[in-house]
C-alpha cells in the first residue's frame, strides 16, 4: 500500500515546503506489517518494510488494514476521513514521541493522505 | 470606479460582560428578525461572512455576528495576562444573554456551531422564553476528549498550525479548496491557548447529556443541522438530541463541522428553509 508514497510526496512541492523542517523517522503499521518512513527536509528518503529487530523511529501510527483502507478509500466514508476520526473510534493508535508529529501536523496529514487516492483534503 | 464594499458593517461594542468591561467586535447586515450567530471554538465571526453577504437571508433577517472575548478582533479583558482562559457553560450563557441585552434585541433567533451548537442547547434548557427560535449547527450533547489538548498550547509547538492541523479533517472532503483553507486560516490566527480554553467547555464543562430530556422544543422551536462528515459532533449525537428534545434534525450531505465557512453556498441551501419556517411562524403568531 505504500509503494508510491515517496514518489507522490516528493512530487508535491507544496507538501515538501510545508515539511521543510521535518527530519524524522516514523512507523506505519498495517495490521502487523511495519514500515519505517524516513523524512529529511520534507522529502521521503526511504520507506523500509519490516520486520525489524531493533526498529528506530520517533512515533508510530498503528491501525488495522481495514481501518487504513477506509481512510484511503477513493470515495470518502463519513467517520473515516481523517486519522483523528480513527483515533476517536479507537481504530488507530498514535504512540511514541509525538512532538515531531504534532508540531508538523498538517504536513503529516498530507503525507498520510497521499497514500490513498488523491483527494481534496490533501494538505 | 466606486469602492466595492460588502454590505456588512463592523463596529466595536462596549459593554460589561461577566462583571468586567469588554470591547467586542460585532458585524451585522440586513434588517428584520435578529439572528445572532455564534462561531466555533478557536475561530471567530469571519466564519459567517457567507450569510452576511447573502441577500436571500439579509432581506428578512438582521444577521449579527460577534467575536467572543479573546477571539478575532475582540480583546480579552484587562488583566488577561494573569489568568488562563477557560470557557464555562455558565459564562458562555451569560455572555450571549448580555450581548443580546446590550444590543437591545427583542427575542432574537440564536444560531451556533460546534461549541455554539452546544451552548444553544443550554439556552434551550435554561432560557427558551428569551429566543424566537434556536438553531444548532453540529450540535451534540457531549464530546469526550479524543486527543491530548495540551498540544494546543505549549511554547515548542505553533499553536495556530497545530490547531488548524487538529481541525483540518473535520472539513468535509468534498468542500471546495477556498472554503477549506479559509476555515483553517481562522484557526491559524487564534490567540495562544484560546482554542484549548474553548475546548474546556466543549469536552468537559459543557456536557448537557443529563439534561436533554428537560429541553422541550415546543417551548422554543429548535432546529439542528449537522454535516454528514462531522466526526466530532457526530450525526448520531445530533439525532439523539432531536429524539430527546423534539427538535427538527437535518443531516447535511457533503458538509462537515464548519458548514457556514467550508461551503457557504451548500450550507445556505439547508438553512434557508429553516429561516423561512421561523419567519412563517412569526407571521402566523402575529396574525
Q: According to CATH, what is the class of chain B?
A: Alpha Beta
Strand content of chain B: 15-25%
Find the count of extended strands of chain A (DSSP E, 2+ residues): 5
Query: How far do the termini of chain A sit from each other?
Result: 20 Å
Number of strands of chain B: 8
Mean pLDDT of chain B: 97
Annotated CATH topology of chain B: Rossmann fold
From the alpha carbons, calculate the radius of gyration of chain A and give it in angstroms. 13 Å
Compressed to H and E, one letter per element, the order of chain A equals HHEEEEHHEHH
**What are the segments of chain B in which pLDDT stays under 50 over at least 5 consecutive residues?**
none
Shape of chain A: globular
Strand content of chain A: 25-35%
CATH architecture of chain B: 3-Layer(aba) Sandwich
Q: Helix amount of chain B, in percent?
A: 25-40%
The CATH H-level superfamily of chain B is Alpha/Beta hydrolase fold, catalytic domain
Strand order of the largest sheet of chain B: 1-2-4-3-5-6-7-8
Assembly state of the chains shown: heterodimer
Shape of chain B: globular
List segments of chain A where confidence is low: pLDDT < 50 over at least 5 consecutive residues. 119-123
